[in-house]
Fold these 2 entries.
Entry 1:
Amino acid sequence: MKIRIERDQIADAVAWVLRSVGSKATLPVLGGILVEASDGKISFSGTDLEIAGRAEIEGAVEQSGRAVLPGRLLNDILRSLPEGSVTIEADAAQGKITGGAAEFTLRALPHEDFPAFQGLDAAVAGVLDAKQFLQAVGQVVRAASHDEARPILTGVLIEIADGKITLAATDSYRLSVRELPWSGPSEPIRRVVPARALAEAARAADAESEVKLSLGESQAGVEAGGRRLTTRLIEGEFPNWRQLVPEDQPNKLTIDRETFAESVRRVGILAQQGVPVRLELGEGGVKLTAGTQDLGDAVEHVAASYAGQPNLVAFNPTYLSEGIAAIEGAEVVLGVRDGLKPAVMRAPGDESFLYLLMPVRVS
Amino acid sequence: MPPPNAPPPEPFLHVDMDAFYASVEAKHDPSLKGVPVAVGGSGPRGVVMSASYEARKFGVRSAMPSARARRLCPNLTFVSPNFSRYKAESEKVIEIFFSFTPLVEQISLDEAFLDVSGASRLFGEPATIAQRIRERVRDERELVCSVGVAPNKFLAKLASAKAKPDGVCHVKAGETAAFLDPLPVQDLWGVGEQTATALERLGVRTVAELRALPDGVLQRALGPGLAGHLHDIARGRDERAVVVHEPAKQVSAEETFDTDLDAPEHLHRELLRLAERVATRLRKDGVAARTVTVKVRFANFKTITRSRTMAEPSDTGARLYATARDLFNALPLDRPRVRLLGVAATGLGLSATEQLRIGTRPDPWRDASAAMDKVRTRFGADAVDLAAIADSEPRADTPPRRRKK
Amino acid sequence: MKTTTPGMWNRLLGQEAAVGVLRASLASDRVGHAYLFVGPRGVGRAPAALALAASVNCLDDGCGTCAICAKVLRRSHADVHHISAEGGQIVVDQVRALREEASRAPFEGRMKVFIIDEAERLNPAAGNALLKVLEEPPSSALFILMTDAPDDMLPTVVSRCRRIDFVPLGFTEIVEILTQHHGVAEDRAAWAASAGGNLAAALRLSKDPAAEERRERHLSYPERLARAGLSSAISLAGEVRVEADEAVDRLKVRQKDEIKEHAEAYGEARGTAAARKRLEVRHKREARRTEQQTYEIVLTDLAAWYRGALLARHGDGAPDAQIEAALGDCALSAPTTSFVDALERIEATRVALSRNAQAGLALEALFMHLGSIG
């Protein structure tokens, strides 16, 4: 394999790919970056078996082929080279990197051992607005579980049906769901992507206007500007979240979002160590309280409009804050039934996002 | 006449509420006033916890089986105990005590010691204070109590018993012998059945006879420790001070086994038992715990403890057990031989909360535990238990347990 | 089902029963989710596990020759994971990582395979965590646990696995495998089988050019000890120590390379310090294992001499030419009871060394005793 590329281009690409190279060291070859060259296309790939990064750049391919070179070393070398043209010549045993007057020879890693990507060619793919996609991921990812005792809940469900794509995540205490328009193939499809990986993969959408989202059999990919991040899927049945969202709530609080967020944050100072924030909902708005005998207590009244019966419901302050933060817009509508049933938060009139939150039972 | 500003010679008060539970119930439900009332379980295995004075006239007493009480007093009205009510009432009464002196030692919901040596300047003589306390309790709480005034705690307690019902008994410093002598030895603090029997064999039935016994004889019969204690007590000497209690910082239960256990199933079952005991006490005190500590003493007497703080405060045996069991299982030892297990709950004071999960109903154990508490007060502590414990009651292959701590 | 025997299962001769069960399950597509391979080291458990892992991923019925099979057998397949005790135990963090990996779709294969070696080293917390995974296994995951001490394992874990027993191999079987399937010459095979004691060791020895010379040296010890007595005991024990040190030194050269490769690949990025530490722990274990193996071989060779001497005195021929050449005056004249005694001592030393006894002292003690024979 022999290629020639501009230093800046290749240094950037390799640096970006290097972020996907982990340090698990289970397989020596995973410490390397795979360089593939054919038909005028040059690509660099790196993976830690959870996420794979692939960058494609333009350059001259003097001889097709592939080689795996130690990632960190390669990166350091490329960064040290002077501006201008860089040549990489590699075979199964070693790789030679030339730039300006400098010449480096690196021992190659066995390229047959580099994990073969399942390939997303057969995948269902579509294009999304990058900003919307990033926003959706941000809104949903925090609700996913961190407990690998139930791995399926550590993932985000991506569902395509009826011209819409829905992202949903839950840790069984709260559920966050965002819907976006989908212009790709209409066949219904459901996949679960590890939350952490999806958040990482969304990186590829940064500073772009559009992203291509691909859903394959065992991997999902986010691609933009010649760079693609692929993550593995989680197997198993994601809970049917639609069944868990109540039809509608009889009691609704419509409140300024910023004010609500601030208030929860303040009162939450005294809600440490498992102590919840209590909301007393009534005609004038809401009274927030939190506290214990030892620490003391906090009380704050927030004026807002309330429709329904007076109600007392308590929430974990972090879960509540995160929900409020995820809502887009100036106002939040909080619907409750009673102190034991799910509460649902939305932006007024906005059906594209919901945050369901279970209360804390207090005696 | 003692010099002015000298501490009073009888500064110890023992306040004992009269028929406390029954009185509180009558206060709550006036239809119970003036009639025989017993607070306790009315079922076949129930016991009387408190009897109103009208019931006492028939011979009904605390700790008596309800069946017998009913035979003695056919018109007896039974009321199920409401501990939260008694606790709330008790707190209000204690507040009254605290307004006289900071040195208040609460013994139980219906008894307290007071040391009023520093209160005489403000409130007068101890006997006067005793009366004022009784008046305030009657006026503010509509409850009756009896007070003993004496030079020390043990005499004050004997005095309050003598003062009942609705009275004051003042044992003056110089009169202690006269007060004690006619009393049976069982009335002395520290004299239980066994000691009383041993004394009877020496021909001693009253305190006077005990005082007359030569020290050597007493020592040979009961050992130097107990003999010394009785020597002092019989002469009315008790050096104990009034200790103001901090609210309980921990609730714990321990069990030493007759034979060392090593089978995981047995050890888990014991942990469950202990967790249930702790949880029941937590619920009774109206608190929940955040941290569980497991104590393990091995056959070689090495003792270790392991703790974990739970995500939420809990007062159910199931939750405490789950944490305790995880802590125990995490021990890196292979089938260790254990002679003692303990479970302690700390981080008290927070009421139990439960973060609910989507799609499931609230923790059924909370309701079940509350139901079990009710059944136990009606039918006795052994009436109901978790199946895992109940099914394991003494069988040939299970080692019997030693006395509880 | 193919009628020819693919090369992968070939290496498992002597384990007909085990291989039969596994291949039948593969053929009828009824591969279980969890297996427990029980048997002594060196009889073919690991090759069987790899063959099974390759078969479930191979697109061609477990051919053993395609790129996929080759990767698996090379231990370079991204979906075949090897778990072993780092330090003395397999800890719960390892099982948690396993559980996370098990929930993911396979990376490049059809099934994820988790091969857990020395499964009896799972500590209680790790065992319980593994139990949870075995109770609800993901559909694309296969667990293969291997142990030589099934009684030391958590019974609940054992009950969730299909048990496959691997039998210890006798001398004749080992010779047959070496000659018929590894192309080893008959007498060398006999020697290797006799010297190695089990199949893996015999295979290793048969391929090691210096092995024969080493055995000759070991076999000379009993006579030398008998002649020179106690004074030679210490120096001979020293020789053995030197031999072990040399073996470890050779290993360390390879290990240094591994560390160098790791540094080149990962540099000092976040998380590499932990990974390098794990590498170092593994290297330490390998070094100890190498040292142990040297002693094992010396003791095996010594025992072979005393057994040979016994046989010779009873009129039977010595088991092989090398032993025959090493029998001398001591073999002819010392009381035979002392040979039996020597064998017991050697066995006791072997056990002590496997329990981390101080090698130097143990060997000296043994040699001093052997030196007092004849």
Entry 2:
Amino acid sequence: MQVLFFLLPGFLVLATFLILPMGYSLYISFFDWNIVDPDISKFVGFGNYTEILSDTIFQKAALNTAIYALVTVPGQIALGLALAIALNGALRGKGLYRTLFYLPVVTPWVVVALLFEYIFVGQGGLANYILVDLLRIASEPIRWLADPVLAFVPIHLLGIWKGVGWVGVIALAGLQVIPRDLYESAALDGVSNWQKFRFITLPLFRPTLVFLTVVLSIGAMNAYVSNQLITNGGDPQDQTHFILTYMYEKTFSGLEFGPGAAISYLLAMVVFMVSVVQLRLLRRESALGW
Amino acid sequence: MKKNAIACFAVLAFASLALTACSTPNEEVAPTAADVSDEAVEPVTISYWHTMSDAESAQLDSVIAEFETLYPAITVEPTRYAYDDFKTAITTGLAGDIAPDTARMDIAWVPEFADLGALSRVETLVPGFDEISSDVFPGPLSTTYWEDGYYGLPQNTNTQVLMWNKSQFESAGIMSAPVTFDEFAANACQLSKGTDQYGFALGGTYFWAPAPLFYAAGGEVTDPSMTTAKGYVNGSGSVQAFTILKDLYDEGCISPNLLGGGIGTADGHGTGLYSMIIDGPWMVDIYKGSYPDFETNFAPIPAGAGGTSSVVGGENVVAFASSQKSDAVGKWMAYLLSEDAQVSMAQVGMIPTRASLVGDTRLPGYFEVFMEQLETAKARVPHPNWGDMDGAISNAFQRILNGDQLVQISLDQAAQEIDALLK
């Protein structure tokens, strides 16, 4: 009984702000929902889901989101791991670097998204200044945000830059639990640095790697702010949407609550599947005794 | 009501509203059965949501004070929102049963919210509706009409005119603003100097930006009864408007900013980067603050096949169907349309909607060109799906500029997309 008493406040908060809205939103996703008078909403079954799945803008948004995950997750991990290895070694001013690399992580998304938008502005932006005037790689200013492919350059770069510090901190913790004596005995055997990384660091680092991959992938699938601010969601021509920016547009600009709820559930299903894969991978590792 | 209670919880979670907001709205003023007989003196508080600027909000406070002197039993409680958050705020308010009594909203949203059943008809709600509506400019009034009646009153109107940099014109040997499309196109190219100066700039490809030129070229989005876009949005006037813009764009006479990621029209014009832009009366205050030395010059939109024309903007005051205080709401709406309130709000740049105020000496001098332009300005399609139609035209415009499609083919596609939205 006492346990239940202590669980209750937390459960009530969760129920009010998470479980109930989630259930209600699932309910909405099966209706042509009228926000003013829910009683007249028409039941459409899986109509909203089939409508969304055959919607070409949604398909493009899903593809964009997948590409974003495929680019930014390995990008963050590679750079974050490199950072962690550097910080794990004997480096002067380690604390200062750690703070500097963590700075983007604690800076609000809105601030850095606007910053990247200004850097990549088509007229007089810093990126164009470097490419055209300093390096002379490009002959004329590139209109990053007017192009449905180039618009992702600032978005992907921002996604990587913002997360490297966090990956670095987690990776550093992962590296520090690897016993030193393994490296020492490897050194006695005359093993090269690359072999140490390949045969000691990487296998023992794997649980951290799986954790990072899954958490970052879920984060990438939920990307929203950077895209909303840099391309207004889908500019140009609805080609640059992420799943969440499209959900927001459907729901709050188009007032189509049913399809909006359906999008959020489709996304939730993908996130759920990724989590299941994570659990499987971790379980396999513990079975192997890692 | 059970569903609404659940909705309330859902909205609470998603919008992180305070728990208290879910209690019965304004319960301190809800009249009880015993009070009904004595309604006239029972104090009532009504809420009024808006998106006004600092200066406008300050002026609104004095308008409210005058209204409350006139009706001592009514208190108006204004709440200010940022424009970008406003639609979401209203939507979550509706979902949680905490919508305001009245609000001033973008004219383009009225059919959408009326179609949802969120708004009240105003013909009987507003005292003296017939007298007010007969004196209001027809363009703005048409934006309050949906299907079977009027769902609001035009509180303030606006339109866009041409803004031109006189000193740049004169140093290029041009003594006046362009009057026809041909002059406009010629001037735009004459004033363009590579990436250092562009003769003309548009804010973007969303319909509001090219709309004045579109209407002046004789373009239309749909037929008047909103049954089809075929032969309208892809008709000859529309094709001509987009062809002119495409040609100017290809010749480098329009700044590339309209496709995104460039310098905005307000700053570009203020710094001399853009010789001409198309914008509204609020620019006077913006330039006073940001570029105090900049000389603003307005001129009517150059005339095309359809003569001079422009697009009607502005806001309508609406009453929400959930409000229980229709008497006070009606009085407040009528007062906002009164000559006193309209003249008062005009001092901060809001153009009155009452035709009887044309030429009134109490209005700021620069209103003249806007009032004149309003006589030929047209309203966007008053339809709940207007937002998606706007997107279809904007995408067509982008395809044209990028050279993905020819003007006619791109607009044919837009016509097809809009027709699907009209059904």
